[in-house]
């Protein structure tokens, strides 16, 4: 599988340390043409740049919700990967948590679970 690396620095915003806002994530998605990428055989590695302090779930969802919805969670995880190797160590946990929150929100939107199922299903 061919791999493309995408440095997200130019999409972070001038003098910003955060990726935030669903509309901003949607704009980046359009610029990167992820609708076509989703249908390709390419693996995508999203590089979180040095100096990043947050990758808010809102931005994550704007950027990747349609991919998760179209591909399914498992195929999405095989196709898209996050590279945090350039992130300052003190922020890696925060950014990983942000990404996990975005995934959880996406999963809940795709397959709503209000918690009651666990009481009725074994």
Approximate strand percentage? 5-15%
Low-confidence stretches: none
Tally of DSSP helical segments: 6
Order of helices and strands: EEHHEEHHEHH
Biggest sheet strand line-up: 1-3-5
- What is the residue-mean pLDDT, rounded to a whole number? 92
Radius of gyration: 15 Å
Outline:
globular
Q: What's the β-strand tally?
A: 5
**Helical amount among residues, as a percent range?**
40-55%
Q: From the helix content, strand content and strand pairing, which structural class follows? A: alpha/beta
Counted up, domains total 1
| Spatial separation of the terminal alpha carbons | 39 Å
Biggest beta-sheet profile: 3 strands, parallel
Describe the structure.
The protein has one domain (3-111). The protein has six helices and five strands. It has helices at residues 22-31, 34-38, 57-71, 73-79, 89-110, 117-120; strands at 3-7, 18-19, 43-47, 54-55, 80-83. The strands form two sheets. Strands 1-3-5 form a three-stranded parallel sheet. Strands 2-4 form a two-stranded parallel ribbon. The longest helix has 22 residues, at 89-110. The model has no long low-confidence stretch (mean pLDDT 92).
Question: Which keywords apply here?
Answer:
122 residues; alpha/beta; three-stranded parallel beta sheet; two-stranded parallel ribbon; 6 helices; 5 strands; 15% strand; globular
What is the gist of this entry?
The protein has 122 residues and is an alpha/beta fold. Helix content is 52%, strand content 15%.
Topology of helices and strands:
Elements: E1 3-7, E2 18-19, H1 22-31, H2 34-38, E3 43-47, E4 54-55, H3 57-71, H4 73-79, E5 80-83, H5 89-110, H6 117-120
Parallel strand pairs: 1-3, 2-4, 3-5
Helix pairs in contact: 1-3, 3-4, 3-5
